[in-house]
Amino acid sequence: MRFGAEVVTDGVRFRLWAPKHDRVSLHIVGHQPLHLMRAVHDGWHELTTDQARPGSLYQFVLPDGIHVTDPASRFQPIDVHGPSEVIDPAAYIWGDADWRGRPWEECIVYELHVGAFTPEGTFSAAIGRLDFLCDLGITAVELMPIGDFPGRWNWGYDGVLLFAPDSSYGRPEDLKAFIDAAHRQSIAVFLDVVYNHFGPNGHYLPRYSPIFSEKHKTPWGAAVNFDGEGSETVRYMVIDNALYWINEFNLDGLRLDAVHAIIDDSEEHILDAIARHIREATSGRHVHLILENEENQSSRLFRTVNGEPRQFTAQWNDDVHHVLHTAANGETSGYYADYAGDTEKLGRALADGFVFQGEIMHYRGSPRGEPSAALPPTAFVAFIQNHDQVGNRAFGDRLSSFAAPEAVRAIVAIYLLAPQIPMIFMGEEWAAVQPFPFFCDFGGDLAEAIRNGRRAEFAKFPEYRDPERRERIPDPTARETFMSAKLGWNEVECGTHAEWLSFYRKLLSLRQAEIIPRLRGIQGKAGRYKVLGDGAVFVQWTLGDGLRLSLATNLSTKPVGTHRTGGRQIFSIGSVENDRLGAWSVIWSLHGG
């Protein structure tokens, strides 16, 4: 890397980019005096010394005496304000030398938060649950952000040190051991990374570098400086970080958070630069780059003539979540109002991917999206729950806690067998009762601001206009809020939880046998749909082997007329009488061949 501490033959080489200062020193814990670093070109300061070795703790010291962490620290044993630790990445001996990843069409993704996934909340403890995930049928795990954040618990989107796995989860070698173990189970591992902002506490970069630019604004304030003065080095840092996770940790891909908030007027957008560098550096491996993009921009998802992604592999498809969510429970608040009761949108989300492809979205009051019909369904990640859609509810309640079981069962049967790539949110597969509320560990005025801000955010919703009800919204900074999110593994094989788990296993086994082998080679627009009645659609896709996959579903409480689907039925729930689909019915069929 161009940044940070690197173990070399004659000690450790330290580098810091601090163009705001002409003098920077290095403090190696346990050694005196300070070491003055050599100022070199373009604001860089560097020093190689034999007084440091793997395990040494260090900080950089600015001219005013402020001790700052290394922005490229590989590990922070005492949280974000403490000293950084020199890590030798070559010390870990990998056991996955033959692993080349999994083709994208084989991916069945499982999103998890390391801290809430197990009682211990560590990488090491998560290894013990890989057998469960393998038995479930999971082929890829997506970790919520792990970059070092302040405090003991956090969703991960308040990270301030991009290169350091948070110490509450374990050491870097513990993360490598988890990835190694997952690969032995033929499970790919993706990481959610955040390049659109830095957290509000423990971020020292602005003290010595132009990390932010007032040229652009984001929901978090000034934008990360990807196109202003000094931006070349900021771009290097982010590109190096992406390559670091892929190459140093053998990760199989990245999920890039909220890329619509990454603003860059450069000739080559930073997203394109990241994708280009990763594609050039990982020839021969299956590496997948996944976007979260509220703007539904399709251009970065285009395929080559042979069906390979030109840049990014897929995008989280909020639209398919919204149509299935509103069908299952009838919710109409906020952005759900643009989807509720609109069967046309249900068909379009399943067939085309994006519902909004340039039309006005009333919730926003502006157009949203770009055409997506030319993309294969595998360019979209489908889900009925994820950290946002659960955790951004006031109480973090899961869909299974407020929607009818027959409705949830129907939409599960749709998204797990559809040609879009499915993603399960941890615990969903057994209808876990634990919520997933928003949580963070801040203190003082910042904690108070976050607590009050979250409750004020919900004041605009009719159900929370009562101040007393808003006061019951969990305090994000309280330990009990974080602890409430920890999965209850003791309930997995009990009663209705075991029935849900069996249902998920059956569907994923069917996907492995009937759907995944036919997704290879799927290109271009593969879906078409027909509205059968309120809440009922017929959708058909042409798969990679030329067969047609069809779905006939009725996501309403009343029977609707349909036509005979024909073909070989591979799965069904609900009822069909006299060519009428019963309430909450789902029929999957294959045609041809």
Largest β-sheet summary: 8 strands, parallel, barrel
Instruction: Name the helicity range.
Output: 10-25%
For the residues shown, what is the average pLDDT? 95
Instruction: Categorize the overall geometry.
Output: globular
Report the top-level CATH class of the domain at 107-193 and 420-438 and 484-518.
Alpha Beta
User: Spatial order of the strands in the main sheet?
Assistant: 10-11-14-17-18-19-22-23
Query: Uncertain regions: pLDDT < 50 for 5+ in a row?
Result: none
- Name of the CATH homologous superfamily of the domain at 107-193 and 420-438 and 484-518: Glycosidases
Strand content: 15-25%
Number of strands: 31
CATH architecture of the domain at 107-193 and 420-438 and 484-518: Alpha-Beta Barrel
Query: What is CATH's topology name of the domain at 107-193 and 420-438 and 484-518?
Result: TIM Barrel
Structural class: alpha/beta
Q: Using only CA atoms, what is the Rg?
A: 25 Å
Distance between the termini: 52 Å
Number of helices: 14
